[in-house]
Amino acid sequence: xxxxxxxxxxxxxxxxxxxxxxxxxxxxxxxxxxxxxxxxxxxxxxxxxxxxxxxxxxxxxxxxxxxxxxxxxxxxxxxxxxxxxxxxxxxxxxxxxxxxxxxxxxxxxxxxxxxxxxxxxxxxxxxxxxxxxxxxxxxxxxxxxxxxxxxxxxxxxxxxxxxxxxxxxxxxxxxxxxxxxxxxxxxxx
Length: 189
Prior knowledge:
This protein has a single domain (2-179), classed as Rossmann fold (3-Layer(aba) Sandwich), CATH 3.40.50. The protein has helices at residues 19-24, 48-59, 73-84, 100-112, 116-122, 135-144, 161-179; strands at 9-11, 29-33, 63-67, 91-92, 128-132, 149-152. It has seven helices and six strands.
């Protein structure tokens, strides 16, 4: 079970994952979490550095889809901000991570944004990298759906109460994986 929580990659920040890195590792799609991955949990404003990063990803042929276990006005505000900056990035709300249906839903949503030919070219299962800040939702869910996962440092420690409990469990898992010397190095580019 604990091996299922071990990510293939670790990064200090989402922006450390560059289009060049994605191409070098043969990933064409980035399925990213929103809360504490793209922006702090209680914020609805995507930082300019992340807007620029998303723009660069798209311009260099990396398809991006966002998934969150939340929804409502905050997510609509995020979607509007992205669109106002010329970014056409689908967002799956109320995703239900870590359940595999969340990842299937994100992939289906991404397919709606692409023509059939261009989508088939990027959508080999091995071409998708899932990223997020939580082992028990983002990494576990990606692995349950048979996707590789990158685990990121959370942008903020302002977490929902249930997430705070999971963060304590993450510390135990991290200790175990580190002791076994199987946890990937952070920012091992």
